Amino acid sequence: MSESKNSGHLVVTIGAGPAGIYSARKLADAGHKVIILNRDIKPGGLVEYGIYFNKHKLKEGVRKQFRNILSDPNVQYFGHVKVGENADLTIEEVKKIFQPSAIIIAAGAQGTKALGIPGDTAPGVYHAKDVVYYYNGLPPFSEGDFQFGRRVAIIGIGNVMVDIAHFLVHVKKVDEVIAVARRGPTQRAYTDVEIQSVAANIDTTALRAELERIRPNLESVGDDIETIYGELTKHVNTKAKEGESPTRLLFRFLSSPTEVVLNDTGRPAALRVENTELVQKGESLSARGLGTHDDIPVDTVIFAIGDRVDETLGLPASGNEYVKNPNPDPNHPGDEAYQVYDPQSEQVMAGTFVIGWSRKASDGLVGKAKQDGEKGIVVVNHYLDTVAPGSAENAEEKVAAFLDTINKRRVRHVTWDDIKKLEEAERKIAQERGFEFFKYETDADMLKVIESE
User: Fold this and answer.
1) Which of 119, 233, 248, 348 is the most buried (most CB within 10 A)?
2) What fold does the segment set 10-110+309-451 form as a domain?
């Protein structure tokens, strides 16, 4: 606990995922008063709604750390409050109400990254983040009308693809999941640990045929087919905890999506891909289009190609990220990577910082987000050393003004005490029903529990 320290600074953090919560601990340890505003009712972000839902022990281990941090007297949590343009509060309103010494954006990468190909907005075409939120029970995605067919193509070949394949193989038990990669098998980004959940479903005969199809190009860049086949299939005898599933897991390499071909009802009939080849580009291999195309029959397409920041949050954005300071700080090299920059005024937005996936979208998992958040607080503290303290002196009055504002807007916020009540109710239900875990999946249900006597 950091009760004995009082720096005189008030810091507002937007977002309560790993970066936001772990950084709050560092802020509180430095004696800063921390206000956390979170879009969702529950804190946790990636831990709560990104990690596959049956990894309960992993999730619970991190939750225990989060509970300790959010119980710190220097940290105050307000959930179910969305910050952004046309949201409950704008960033400018947050600054005006709290007048903090610094504001930290730790809201993750909530925007959608797309290839922009024909047919990619049709019914039956989804983005990985939305699907992950759906099966992990995050409102309102948990209430969405996601319709998965029998042949599902997943664009991308990282751990997110594997997680979604896990869901399709063991929950939906679709006929086929086809992982589509623009480059080759040695450029896959998933880990040995993750693939074991679906390795038993790899169609080894089809995989052998796929590697033979692209053998000439793979060998031209020094890849050995037998070695690759062995690496891809070394876990096929690993049994998943959910048991057997009839789903076939297929791979399609050296294929760059160019169109989602739609049927007469406007839903996917095939994924059209351009065949590619691997070419040396510097020290790495890139994919070059060959100008020839194939259609892969599918009825569902899921893009697992990473995410981008939410451009409606109210910060200047470029590409997939918010704009950071392009000018290195001679006194603290590296700090500029966390400082938000306004390209119109060509000035750093004083006291405004980004951390975690809000700094670099889809970069790493919980451990990396934690490290980035904590590194970002070093940058924040460098800045606070140059700012006169005092913003925390009337923190209670500022909180009262904040509550008055959102109450007038009929925003039903939740506190850390509310979350503890909700978690206790969920634990009791899990125990009574003999479940490993239980989670309410709608805001209405969660608020009903919180508001109950």
Assistant:
1) 119
2) Rossmann fold (3.40.50)
